[in-house]
Design a protein that fits this description.
Blueprint (H helix, E strand, L loop, with lengths): L2 E5 L2 E4 L4 E8 L9 E6 L6 E6 L6 E3 L7 E6 L4 E6 L8 E8 L10 E4 L3 E6 L1
Parallel strand pairs: 2-11
Antiparallel strand pairs: 1-3, 3-8, 4-5, 4-9, 5-6, 7-8, 9-10, 9-11
Length: about 120
């Protein structure tokens, strides 16, 4: 059974940084699958934040996070990270980590397994 578990969320002030972590268990050959981060704010649809190729050869970010976020992974630890800097109140949302169906993708349907999310709240 594949499990995806996020951590690292919390309450921060505008301008602060956070690093989210995501650990995947129960999936062999983790290094063959893309990892992605998405977020869902109250009353809004879940949206793409960042994605990283299975072997870290490419990344993609939502426009709102260009220059403010870095996605990375450690395949030996079955773990992905999302470093977010200069956080803004509009970044408040539940952040979800997901394991891809293949080695690359950034659309929701390209992700098969999802975590339960970690809350990020940014106060002004």
């Amino acid at each position: 059974q594949v499990q995806v578990v996020e951590s690292g969320g919390g309450l921060v002030q505008a301008g602060d940084s956070l690093r989210l972590s995501c650990v995947v268990s129960g999936r062999s050959a983790f290094y063959n699958y893309a990892m992605g981060w998405f977020r869902e704010a109250p009353g809004k649809e879940r949206e793409f934040v960042a994605a990283i190729h299975a072997r870290s050869i490419m990344t993609k970010y939502a426009g709102s996070f260009e220059g403010r976020a870095t996605i990375s992974r450690e395949n030996a630890k079955n773990t992905a990270y999302l470093q977010m800097n200069n956080l803004k109140p509009e970044d408040t949302a539940v952040y979800y980590c997901a394991l891809g169906r293949t080695n690359w993708g950034f659309r929701r349907y390209e992700y098969e397994y999802w975590g339960q999310g970690t809350q990020v709240t940014v106060s002004s």
